[in-house]
Target: DUF3939 domain-containing protein
Amino acid sequence: MWKRKKKQQHKNKEQSLEVRDLSIHEVRKAVHAYADDKPSEVPLSVLIKEDLTLDYELLSPYLHAIPEKNYYMSRETYELFEEEDRGLAHEIDLVQRAVDHYMKETKELPVIDHDPFKRINYYKLEKLGLLPDRPNRDYYMTREEFMVTYQKPD
Model:
């Protein structure tokens, strides 16, 4: 009995929010505000649905609307992507997981030897069966916490 009422309240609240054209910067700002306000034991990944879209119900106190277009967030790097880059969000998660497993198994970075940009060596990942398909773009290791990025370092 209580669950129905609670679900109905959430549904009414969600229906009362207007759909607006929100920029990626507005959504990113709302995600940061949510991250600042959430309890420390709650991971930021609760915002990310299975298909990597954001849970706008959780973000509604910060957005005060529902975005017209979908935004996607990487579960591994927490980067936010627009609709046209949805595949990039999935791919970066795949590469980051492969890199994490490689480092756990070998205790070394899977980068191309002597590459000043620390480009990911797909051959090293494939050799251990960690990467099912080779991405069409280059990925790089960042300087912080062994994170993967698609942006070439300066």
